[in-house]
Amino acid sequence: MLEIADKYGLTLREALVLQHVIRQYIATANPVGSRTVSKQLHLNLSPATIRNIMADLEDKGLLGHPHTSAGRVPTDKGYRCYVDTLMQGMRPKEEDVAFIETRLEDEQFTTIEDVIRKCTHILSAISHQLALVSVPLIGNGRLEHIELVPVSSSRVMVILSIMSGIIKSIVFEVDSEIPRHVLQELASALNERLGGLTLREIRETLPDRIRDTSIDAPSIVELIIKASDRLFSDELDEDRVYIDGVGEVTQHPEFSDPVRLRRIIELVENRNIIIHVLDSVGDSRDVTIRIGSEFEDSALQEYSMIAAPYAVGSAAGRISIIGPRRMDYDRLIPIVDYIATYLSNAH
Amino acid sequence: MLEIADKYGLTLREALVLQHVIRQYIATANPVGSRTVSKQLHLNLSPATIRNIMADLEDKGLLGHPHTSAGRVPTDKGYRCYVDTLMQGMRPKEEDVAFIETRLEDEQFTTIEDVIRKCTHILSAISHQLALVSVPLIGNGRLEHIELVPVSSSRVMVILSIMSGIIKSIVFEVDSEIPRHVLQELASALNERLGGLTLREIRETLPDRIRDTSIDAPSIVELIIKASDRLFSDELDEDRVYIDGVGEVTQHPEFSDPVRLRRIIELVENRNIIIHVLDSVGDSRDVTIRIGSEFEDSALQEYSMIAAPYAVGSAAGRISIIGPRRMDYDRLIPIVDYIATYLSNAH
DNA sequence: GGTAGCACTCGATGCACGGGAGTGCTAATT
DNA sequence: AATTAGCACTCCCGTGCATCGAGTGCTACC
After folding, report:
1. Average pLDDT estimate for B67-83
2. What is the DSSP letter of B70?
3. Do B144 and A152 touch (CB under 8 A)?
4. How many CB atoms lie within 10 A of CB A49?
5. Which candidate from A151, A250, A266 shows the least CB-CB separation from B262?
6. Low-confidence ranges of chain A (pLDDT < 70)
7. Is the pLDDT of residue B89 over 80?
8. Domains of chain A from N-terminus onward
9. For residue B301, is pLDDT > 90?
């Protein structure tokens, strides 16, 4: 630990104290005083010595205190240091794995959306944080099969099967009834010409690929071309992201302040900020952690996020939890990772 | 007004005072004192007289005060009396109609779910209350057309067109790949035998109607029969109800108390209570109003609800708003009614 | 019946006070 | 030179207390 921690220029003792203060604060939500640390950390150091160490840590920007004569509280930088170097255990706890498994066991999923919804719920329940899972963007998914089905005199349902089992269905309006055999003819033409392409490719080149068909109903072809941005869009579901756990996360003491409570409700109702921050997570295969001031958006300065990408075939989504910065990183990071892996393998 | 109000045994003057207290309390959220009423109600009565009247109203259970020496506050019975007899104007305000119209105008809806979702949102925005709209139960809807589409080697999508334009699609799992022509054969058999029946009829009599088909893949027939409860269920969408406006409703001063705020969040996350109360609204064509203690469920004792049924063809759903009992009934009842009517005509 | 007056109640507000937890500094100790 | 003990100081927070204002209920009077 020493070697790593000294990236931040910390002595072993400083690192131990910082670690303990952060753990303590995460557990109790109260500023941590020198006396407590001195007693609980068995280094036989008096409170006074601890105070000196804590003062040093404060100089380095890792701890702060809300006011003179309160205990110490980690700063964003302190949490960052903790997450980068002082944390331990990158494996989910057995009991947590068991919890997840039992919740998933006797479920029958038929669509990927069901799985995602369930995972969002489990994630919020186990973490007591806000759980966010973005629906996978399917622009990179390859079209396996397309089907056109008349559902009423003026509407046609388009069903896209995408490789690795995702199904997207869209209803779209047509001017007049299209005979079934025309739809079938069109569908097989589309299958022939578009099968195996990614949706993005289809979107970009659709006109070139189908204008010259010999279908005797050019109007429907035009309609499809016109609607192609919607039909072959990246979005599987108009709800771009599933959210769960408002009730869970608001149990934390930081939300006994009604202003904060109000704020997080608005955050959730708005969705835009959340969708944006989920998108902003890079494509790295790893778990991404963002703490307070590390967010671009000022509305999120009081929160932390743990996010991980998952992939269903070549469609990629993100899963994350958001909650107070005082978050049990040790336990939650492996959990997010675990569920992301589950999602990637579930089909 | 007198004639009606005296169902409650009220004199004209009492009725006027009650009406004014309730309006005032709805507008300001503060207990209403005798002085205010005396000044604002131009009956040339002194505060002392008003006090006597209010004391009488209190004896009749229509008003109360939170503590000695606070102003008066309506009781549930007071609100009930107001709603039954003292309210006026059953027509939505022009500005509200305009608001709704502009929100709906340039929308392109292709499915009934879209319309419902949009209406839920508009309703919460215009009322500043929690808006709840239940997805229509389609058990009484008549099957117009059924379509079976293979979407992967082991899954089949069933698409039900229900008269009046509702479409329900369900994906279900099959053991092994079913050849397309078998599905088509089965679909036309189903269309022939089930077309025109209500989903409820189909659910109840499906085995009798299709067991004797000559389809050469009896396994799929069995599967359909086994899945029939799900395929032909009353539910259009697994989310039985759309909810919007948590942010809106929590702006009301009653939610500055964090306990109440917490409670309503839990109410929304739970959904069960809400679904149940929406179901409990009778089938009356009219707007139903429920106030505080009139709810069976104790979790709703602090709220009021305005609910109205709507119908899409023969599928019926309910639309409602829930918020503090201190609700602007005059304005909101016509609005709920208006949107219910819109929903019933929107297809 | 309506009104004026008055004592009373109760919540909200502001303030002083004291205890408790914790800090920072200095001087003494090892 | 590092550690520790001691001490003055700071700040939060709960409590008690006096005050104020809105509003009531009652009684006596018009």
Report:
1. 93
2. S
3. yes
4. 16
5. A250
6. 1-6, 213-217, 347
7. no
8. 2-86 (1.10.10.10), 94-137+237-345 (3.30.450.40), 143-231 (3.30.390.60)
9. yes
